[in-house]
Amino acid sequence: MKAYVDKDACISCGLCPSICPEVFEMEDDGKAGVVTDEVPESEKDSAKEAEESCPVNAISVS
């Protein structure tokens, strides 16, 4: 399972790293980014929660 952040859609709300800091982080450009190429098995549920919680649908996890 991989996570992806659409930087053009991201509004820098910080919700995704607050839900799943093992997968998402706020980067130097102020936008969210992905910490790891593969979502760890133990973080799949929280990564999906971050995807579903994104107010602008900038995250995809599949």
TrEMBL record:
Region entry Disordered, spans: 38-62
Domain 4Fe-4S ferredoxin-type as annotated: residue spans: 1-29
Composition-biased stretches (Basic and acidic residues): 41-51
Native organism: Clostridium omnivorum
Name by which UniProt lists this protein: Ferredoxin
Superkingdom of source: Bacteria
TM helices/strands, residue ranges: none
Alphabetically ordered keywords of this record: Electron transport, Iron, Iron-sulfur, Metal-binding, Transport
Chain's role: Ferredoxins are iron-sulfur proteins that transfer electrons in a wide variety of metabolic reactions.
Listed InterPro entries: 3Fe4S_ferredoxin, 4Fe4S_Fe-S-bd, Fe-S_cluster_ET
